[in-house]
Amino acid sequence: MYTLGEFIIENRDRFLYSTEELLRLFSSIKLAAKAINKEVNKAGLTEKIIGSSGITNIQGENQQKLDDFAHRVFIESFKSRNVVCGIASEESKDFIVIVEKGEKENPKYIVLIDPLDGSSNIDVNVSIGTIFSVYIRRTPIPMDLTIEDFLQKGNKQILAGYIIYGSSTILVYTTGNGVHGFTLDPSIGTFYLSHPNLRFPEIERIYSINEGNYAKFPNGIKKFIKYCQEKKENRPYTARYIGSLVGDFHRNMIQGGIYIYPKTEHSPEGKLRLLYECNPMAFLTEQAGGKASDGKKRILDIKPLNLHQRTPFICGPVRMVSKLEEFMDR
Ligand code: AHM
Ligand code: MG
């Protein structure tokens, strides 16, 4: 049974950049994931962990204590491995420079991260996740990082993935050579290959959308929902919605389903963030043989204009997503 480290070394020819640097990136990610996993598992035990920190984050949302903890753990973990020069996080208004000019030998990787997504599920013991995305900086070393280093199109990602803290803790990633999942054995703190070459199955089974917002959806989305519920061919599909992007995505990739977070009357740009939620999920989707769209265009081709930009987000098996796009065109 391969560990994550062994798997990366075994597949070193498939990664365009330095394997040693990729191992260091994963060393940071694994370390932070294990620390967060430990806190998530004891969240019900301590008042210090569960609930709100009383701080409102950049999105105007109540920041949970665990969100803040996860953010700090990732920053510290990336700092300690000297492989990342800058991070943008859902929990921080501006990007964070990890290695100042001239400090150490200057690393070239940029990380965009949602340290703990689905935070409304923390207090109720439902799956939550970390989503990460990695790019190569654009400004040459040793110049200062600029916002343009972070505002790259999703099609420039060199690594993306998520960690799901669920009934078990699983790390799923792609470097552009398929999607692979590794399950944490908590007794020894090691991630083992458990889901090699994840692909959306041929079968179309599930639709995932917060249907409570139905009245606020665009007409194309309303029609697609009715299509999903029609008794015809292999339909109706079953409805499944956790309200935790990582959990909904993970299930849909394994069982065959479409995830939809459209724009609504109240969120005309959609709710999810392009850079650290949608782009990494879109990269994984395509690598798993699926399609990711904003309803009209490919997510990975959108030019980001700001760090916390939102977008409508649809991902899943190609045929399901293309069908939804047809309804959006009508
Ligand atoms: P968060 O970043 O504040 O946790 O919000 C993102 C989450 C996603 O995980 C999930 O898919 C979506 O918000 C659910 O939103 P809603 O409760 O509006 O359905
Ligand atoms: Mg989030």
Short descriptors:
Fructose-1,6-Bisphosphatase, Chain A, domain 1; 330 residues; binds 2,5-anhydro-1,6-di-O-phosphono-D-mannitol; globular; 8-stranded mixed β-sheet; alpha+beta; binds magnesium ion
How would you describe what is shown here?
The chain is α+β, with helices and mostly antiparallel strands and 330 residues long. It folds into 2 domains: 192 residues, Fructose-1,6-Bisphosphatase, Chain A, domain 1 (2-Layer Sandwich); 124 residues, D-Maltodextrin-Binding Protein, domain 2, CATH 3.40.190.80. The strands form 3 sheets. Strands 4-3-5-6-7-8-9-10 form an 8-stranded mixed sheet, with helices on both faces. Strands 12-11-13-15-14 form a 5-stranded mixed sheet, with helices on both faces. Strands 1-2 form a two-stranded antiparallel ribbon. The protein contains 7 helices and 15 strands. Helix 4 crosses helix 7. The relative contact order is 0.13. A hairpin with a 4-residue loop joins strand 8 and strand 9. The model has no long low-confidence stretch (mean pLDDT 93). 2,5-anhydro-1,6-di-O-phosphono-D-mannitol binds next to strand 5.
